Amino acid sequence: MAGGLVALLDDVAALAKAAAASIDDVGAAAGRASVKAAGVVVDDTAVTPRYVHGFSPDRELPIIRKIAIGSIRNKLLIILPVAMILSQFLPQALPYLLIAGGLFLCYEGAEKVYEALTGGHHEDETADAPKSGPELEKTMVNGAIRTDLILSAEIMVISLSSVESEPFVTRLMVLIVVAILITALVYGVVALIVKMDDVGLSLAQRQSSFARRVGRGLVAAMPKVMAVLTVVGIAAMLWVGGHILIINVGEAGFHWPADRLHDLEHWFGDLVHGGFGGILSWTAGTVASALVGLALGALVVLVMHLIPKRKKTSSAH
Description:
Elements: H1 2-36, H2 38-47, H3 57-89, H4 94-118, H5 133-161, H6 168-204, H7 209-251, H8 256-271, H9 275-316
Helix pairs in contact: 1-5, 1-6, 2-5, 2-6, 2-7, 3-5, 3-6, 4-5, 4-7, 4-9, 5-6, 6-7, 7-8, 7-9, 8-9
């Protein structure tokens, strides 16, 4: 009996070790996947605060909470099943999905550059929406969730690409972990950004001169923080989009762009020995990927802006 109990305890210990190792593997894979999706995460964080602009402070956090719930539903109930089915039964489609997603990122980044240079903007999808009240809030939340669906699909597909060789259960667990962690990160940061003005105003009304200085500093800094975040988001979209395109065009059979990028990184890395060489190599690859992303995105922007204008001109005649 004692021998059987000892054997049972050994089996339980072995299972516990295996489970711990599996959790470690999932955690490490989720970490790699999250880093790979960082460019889209930055863009998601930069885009979302505009959906609460103009609302009273007491409605900001409830709106962000509704968008976050919609985001996790997008990831777990819509994107996750489709991604898992494709990865299991049609894995050869993954590079083409990533190419489409990378091209979309390049387009979004290039269009933001175009808007910054020309002063143009997207047509506001809520232009005909109610101007205030619950209906406006509902419209803005629905618009944010629709936008999040595209960005979340990018995050999940990019994350999946980093664990495509793992077993089915590991892929599933990694995507669930990434979905929850990224949603919490993005909307936690968004909530912090949105409420920072209120924190600053509250501190600015305190009796302490130090608190007032900190409060005024926060209020003054937030527009600059948002401007920097916007620039970083655009750069990240172009870099990630360009890199996704280069690598996955190679996965689809055309290896020349990926080979040239690899050669460029090696050439810069060999200029300087040691850690700085690695930094130089990474910087060169990042800049090259961003330039490719900007060039390809600009072509899509050109097509998207020229075709509607020509249609309007022809219809006017």
